[in-house]
Design a protein that fits this description.
Two copies of one chain form a homodimer. With 291 residues, chain A is an alpha/beta fold. Helix content of chain A is 52%, strand content 12%. Chain A contains twelve helices and eight strands. Chain A has an eight-stranded mixed beta sheet, sandwiched between helices. The first copy, chain A, starts with 7 loop residues before the first strand and ends with a helix. In chain A, 53% of the residues are buried.
C-alpha cells in the first residue's frame, strides 16, 4: 500500500479544512475513494451534498476501519480524543495524519495512543480563512499554499514521500520540518497575529467611547482585526497547545510596543521603523508571489 | 460664495487622497473647476492626464489665488508649510480644508497662520489604501466612507454646511467632531492598528530564522501586516502629531498583551477573549454594512 497512493481516504472532521481537502482530493486525478465523518450530522450531510466526500461513515470506528489514509481535521484538542477512539479500529499499515495548527502535542499523542503498525505524520496546511465551516470549503483553498509535514525520526520515509505527492496533487507545496520548529515558527507568523488581532478588538471595543469611535474604524481596522473573527475554539486550542512559544512572542511584542511608545517624538526612529518594515514585507510578498 | 458651492476648487498635493478627491469631484454633478498643484512634476502631470484636475498651477501661490476652496492633501507635517506659503495669496472669503490624519495640530497651525477672513475646517476622509500615489487614485475611494470634519467654535456654520454637502456629493458621510476627540478616536482605531502591523513585521523579520520562517507566513500574516506597507512618511507624521494619544494606546496594548500572556493556560479566559472579540467585530461589521 505504501508504494502506491492510498485507495481509501477517510476525513475525520468536515469543517473548512476537512471539507476543502475532500473537495481538492476529489478534484485531483487520483484514483481514490474519499469518505468522512463528523460529530455534527448537518456538516456530514453538507459534505456529502457538496461532493467533499462520497460516503458518510455511521461512526468513527466504521469511518476508519477500511481506510488506507486517515486525515484528522478537527480542532487541536479534539485530535487526542479521535486518536484514542480510532486506534483499535485501524487497518494494519494505515497512515494517519492531521491538519492541526500546532504539531508537537499531536505527535506526542499519536506516539502514546496509536499502534506501532500505524505511521503518523503531523500535517499543517498554511491555508484558512476567518470563514469557517463546511459551507465555506473550496477545492482551491490549498492552491499555492505551503503544507507542513512534521515527521519524527522513526517515521518511514516512504510514508513521508507518499504524503508529499498527495499534497502536490491538491496544489500545495510540502515543507518538511520538525514538530518543535514548526510550532516555534507558527507562534510568530500565525499565532501572534491572531492574538494581536483579537487584542486590538478587545482594547478598542472595551473603550467607553466605542459606540462613537467605531464609526471612524475603516478598512485598516477591518484588515488588522480580520483574524479576530476566526474560530474561537481553534484559537483557544492553539494557545493551549503552543503555550510557551506564544507566550514568549506576546511578551516580546509587549516590550517592542513599549519601546516604540518611548520613541513617539523621535523622527529618525519612526521613519526607520516604518521604512524597514515596509521593505521587509515587500521582500516577503515578492517571494510569496513567485511560489 | 458661501451660500453656493465654491466654483473653483484647488487641490494641493496630488497623491492617493488628493488625486481621488479630484476624480470624485470631477465625477460629481457639481458645476466646478478643479485645478491642482504638487511639488512633484510627475504627479502633477499624471493628475492632469487622468483627469483628476483640469488645470495645473505653476506655483503654490498661483494655485490658490483664484480659488474659492483649497483642499490641502499633503502628509501632516507638510500642511504647516503649505498654510504658511498660501496665506498671503488667498482670496478674501476663501475656505481652506485639509485631509490629514491628525486634526488638532492642523487646526492650531491654521489659527496661527491664516488671515482671519479665511475659514479653515479640518477634514479627514476615513478612506485610504496601502497603495499610495496618484497612480492608485480612484473616483470611488470615498464611497460609503466616513469623512470627519473638525470645526472649532469660531467656524461659520455655513462653511461647515457647505463642506458637508460637498462630502455627500462624493459619496462619503460627513461626521462632525472636535479636533481633540477625532485625534483620540483615530489613535485607537487607525494609528494603533498601523503601529501594530508594523511592529509585527519588525518582530518577525528581525528573527534570525526569518528566511525559513517566512515560508509559513500565509494570508493571516498578510492581512494583519497590510498597513505596514503604508506610506512611511505619513505614518511617521501621524505619530509626531498625535504623540500622546498613540503612546497611551501603545502602552495600553503592551499591558493587555502581558495579561493575555499570563493566561495562555487558562481555557476559560482564552475562550471568552476570542468569543467576545469575534462578537464585537461582528457587531461593527454589520453596522458598517448598513452605512
Amino acid at each position: 500500500m505504501i508504494d502506491n497512493f492510498p485507495r481509501h481516504i477517510s476525513i475525520i472532521g468536515l469543517g473548512l479544512i476537512g471539507g476543502s481537502l475532500g473537495l481538492a482530493l476529489q478534484a485531483s486525478p487520483l484514483d481514490i475513494v474519499v469518505t468522512g465523518w463528523d460529530a455534527h450530522a448537518a456538516s456530514l450531510e453538507q459534505a456529502l451534498h457538496t461532493g467533499a466526500i462520497e460516503g458518510a461513515a455511521s461512526s468513527l470506528a466504521e469511518g476508519v476501519s477500511h481506510s488506507d489514509l486517515i486525515i484528522i481535521a478537527t480542532p487541536v484538542l479534539a485530535v487526542r480524543n479521535v486518536l484514542e477512539q480510532i486506534a483499535p479500529h485501524l487497518k494494519p499499515g494505515a497512515i494517519v495524519t492531521d491538519v492541526a495548527s500546532t504539531k508537537a502535542q499531536a505527535v506526542t499523542w499519536a506516539q502514546e495512543l496509536l499502534p506501532s503498525t500505524t505511521a503518523f505524520v503531523g500535517g499543517h496546511p498554511m491555508a484558512g480563512s476567518e470563514q469557517h465551516g463546511i459551507q465555506n470549503a473550496r477545492a482551491d483553498l490549498f492552491k499555492g499554499a505551503m503544507y507542513c509535514l512534521t515527521p519524527v525520526e522513526t517515521t518511514p520515509r516512504q510514508v513521508v514521500a507518499l504524503l508529499k505527492r498527495l499534497i502536490e496533487q491538491i496544489g500545495a507545496k510540502p515543507l518538511q520540518l520538525s514538530p518543535e520548529t514548526h510550532d516555534a515558527y507558527v507562534a510568530a507568523v500565525s499565532h501572534l497575529p491572531f492574538v494581536l488581532s483579537t487584542a486590538l478588538v478587545r482594547l478598542t471595543s472595551g473603550d467607553p467611547h466605542w459606540p462613537e469611535m467605531r464609526q471612524l474604524a475603516a478598512t485598516g481596522y477591518r484588515d488588522v482585526t480580520r483574524l479576530a473573527s476566526g474560530d474561537p475554539i481553534m484559537h483557544r486550542d492553539i494557545c493551549l497547545t503552543n503555550t510557551e512559544a506564544v507566550r514568549s512572542r506576546l511578551l516580546e511584542m509587549s516590550r517592542l510596543l513599549e519601546e516604540v511608545a518611548t520613541h513617539m517624538n523621535d523622527m529618525v526612529y519612526l521613519q526607520t521603523l516604518f521604512e524597514t518594515a515596509r521593505q521587509e514585507r515587500d521582500v516577503w510578498l515578492r517571494e510569496r508571489e513567485k511560489r
